[in-house]
Amino acid sequence: MKVVAFITDYAVVDRIIDHLKLTFVAEKPPSSSVFEQVAPMAQELSSLRDGRY
């Protein structure tokens, strides 16, 4: 799976979350394994933006 876009406008994100009636309350910080999964995706996105793919 590839991420093709990000929504960066906070107002738009808030409207989507409100529309879906979602709440985000973290009881504890995510484990370090989450960051290990996100790092390769961030690298891939950086490569896509730089035209290396």
Summed up, the domain count is 1
- Low-confidence runs (pLDDT<50, min 5 residues)? none
Major sheet characteristics: none
In DSSP terms, counting alpha (H) and pi (I) runs of 4 or more, how many helices?
2
How many distinct beta strands?
Answer: 0
Q: Determine the structural class based on helices, strands and strand pairing.
A: mainly alpha
Q: What is the percent of helical residues?
A: 40-55%
Give the N-terminus to C-terminus distance in angstroms: 15 Å
* Secondary-structure element order, N to C: HH
Average pLDDT across residues? 78
Q: Report the sheet-strand fraction.
A: under 5%
Give the overall silhouette.
flat
Radius of gyration, in angstroms, nearest whole number? 15 Å
Short summary of the structure?
With 53 residues, the chain is an all-alpha fold. Helix content is 53%, strand content 0%.
Give the topology, please.
Blueprint lengths: L9 H10 L12 H18 L4
Write structural notes for this entry:
- With 53 residues, this protein is mostly helical.
- The protein has one domain (10-49).
- The protein has two helices and no strands.
- It has helices at residues 10-19, 32-49.
- It is flat, with a radius of gyration of 15 Å.
- The chain starts with 9 loop residues before the first helix and ends with a helix.
- The mean pLDDT is 78.
